[in-house]
Amino acid sequence: MATVVLACGVLLPSLQDAVHDTVPDPVTLSGVPDRKELKLLDELAATYLPADSTPSLDEIAAQPDVPHQASPVSAPQEPDEPVRVVVVGSDAALAAVVTRLMRIDALWISVGFVPTDATSSIATVWGLDAGQLPGAAALDTALTGAAQPTALIRDDTGTVTLGCAEIFHAGSTMVGEVIVDSETLFLNDSSVRWNGRPGPYGARFVPTTGAPGLAATPLTTPSTQDSVAAQHPPKKRLFGLLGGTAQPGGVDPDTVLTGRALQAGGEKLTVVRDGVAHPRPVSSVTFYRHLRDGQFVRR
């Protein structure tokens, strides 16, 4: 197997030592590699699969019987040699790498992940025990573990979400609507500034790895990524539903919708994917399952 290890950002000394002891020539990139840095993936794909004889994305989309809700499958491509990319870094770094692989239609390349953050959402979704395995053991799993077909969620900007995405209006309840497939997750037309009371502050979803693709739930308190709400914490304790002082990132566990796609529309929406906020507010966003599945080392 041809393997490339991408060391993204500044690594802890123990993890850096594990990488250099195991891999003779890791590629060092910035914390969140940009398109220019990731051009090496284009070259890697072209080297091991000069021509792809499988149906293109346009041909797949044109098929009348595309199984949108089907279980993920192995990649149909047959490269000259199996190829794996291992990302050592943050959720944002891994998302940038997989986004590039999706955009160049090279999801046949398997991907391993060594999270550098113990709170990694992607590690949770993939069952990687972030922060519990020694660096050398985590790296060995990423290098030698079996890749499993995994549903891949993207959005209308061509960016993937691997661990978690949130949509909200900064500092107040979200005025708008969130729909999963054909079901409404919530609909709200009243803007209320964050005051410690529960409400429809937005939505959070995680990829499901298998069919149908994602699971979404309403945010009952502001997102942990909402810096505006963080500047105005509630001044009194709340009891009952919130159980004491209100905490950011609360969700409604009794309201969970699963589906292939999520659509959100509203006023000045903030979108955060795998810890990275979209550069500007939007009025709408659509997330949906990509036509090709990822091949990821997970449990």
How does this structure look, described?
- By secondary structure, the protein is an alpha+beta fold.
- Helix content is 20%, strand content 30%.
- The chain contains seven helices and 17 strands.
Furnish the topology, listing elements before pairings.
Layout: E1 2-8, H1 13-22, E2 27-29, H2 39-48, H3 57-62, E3 83-89, H4 91-103, E4 110-115, H5 121-126, H6 135-144, E5 147-150, E6 153-155, E7 160-161, E8 165-168, E9 176-180, E10 183-188, E11 202-207, E12 214-219, H7 227-230, E13 257-259, E14 261-273, E15 276-277, E16 282-289, E17 294-297
Parallel strand pairs: 1-2, 1-3, 3-4
Antiparallel strand pairs: 5-17, 6-7, 6-16, 8-11, 8-14, 9-10, 9-14, 11-12, 12-13, 14-15, 14-16
Features:
299 residues; alpha+beta; Rossmann fold; 2 domains; four-stranded parallel β-sheet; 7 helices; 17 strands; globular
Distance between the termini: 20 Å
Number of strands: 17
The ordered H/E elements are EHEHHEHEHHEEEEEEEEHEEEEE
Helix content: 10-25%
CA radius of gyration: 20 Å
CATH class annotation of the largest domain: Alpha Beta
Quick take:
The protein has seven helices and 17 strands.
